[in-house]
Structure formats: structure tokens, C-alpha cells
Amino acid sequence: MFRLFLTATIVITLSLPAVQAVSQANSTPSAAASMTILNASETGKIIPATVFFQGQSASVQDRNSAGIRFGKESLLLVALVDTSGYSSSVQQKYQAYLITQEPIEIGGHRLVPGAYGCGFIANNKFIVMDIGAHELFTVQSAHDTELHRPTPLQILPSGNHYRLYEGRNYVELIAPAH
Question: Keyword set for this entry (predicted)?
Fold first, then answer.
């Protein structure tokens, strides 16, 4: 009996560091694991049905929305909007509404938490405006000919960053580490 007890004690003692290492690896989420891409059905439940931009309200196309969940508490949401009530000059720039609860970076520009109008415009550019339609910055966008299934709007992972796509056009989003 003593021999069985001694054998069990040795096996438990030798395997304890491996069990602790596996337990620690499973309890410490990586930055990528704590961020989740949300699809249109998930963001459609969260994003407001109408949004305010340049003194008017516009309907959100929740079927054309996407997002990122940062950890448990914070979100980035983006959706195409119905801009039929806006002038053509605004419609050319304002295609989507972006809401972020975390600071992000787009093309080297830091975007603080808030609500913004944005869009892919002529000459491979992406514009970000405050809700008063004042231009904050414009960055170069890219065209992805390799994208297998372009949709009106989506967010896809790209290494340790994300790409915000409208069709095949995209900009890189750099999200905070969590």
C-alpha cells in the first residue's frame, strides 16, 4: 500500500508543473483572443437603427454592418447608412457610420472614442469626419483583388490588425491591445 501511495505522490508531483502551465496558458487570454469580429447579425442587434450626422438622422443598414468586440466591455461598430436625404456632395463622402469605444488607428491617424461619418471616396481614399461633417483626415485606401467574397461592408483580420472593407476597397484598423 505504501508503494502505491509513493508512486501516486511521485506521479502527481512530476505532473503538477505541466498542469499549472496549461492552466495558466488557458487563463491568460492573448490580445487576439480577447478581440472578436462581429458579423452583421451580431452588430444589427447592437447598432442604433438611426444615427445623427450633419444635423439629420439617417437609417442604418444593419444587414451591412460589422464590428469588433474588445474584451468584454468595448466595441467598434460600423454600418452603411441610407444617405438619400443628404446633398450629393455629402453622399459622396458619407457612406458609413463608425462608433468606437476604444481609440483606434487608421492610416497613422489616431481616432479617439466617439461617433464618426466615413467613406471610401475617389482616387483610392478613405475619409473620416466628425458628426458635424467636418473632415478629420483622409488616408490612402487599397484594393484587394484576392478577396474571394466581397460584400458591401465587412471587417476581416489581417495579421494582428483588421481591415475595414467596402467591397474590395479597404483600410487597415489598428486596435488597442487587450
Answer: Signal
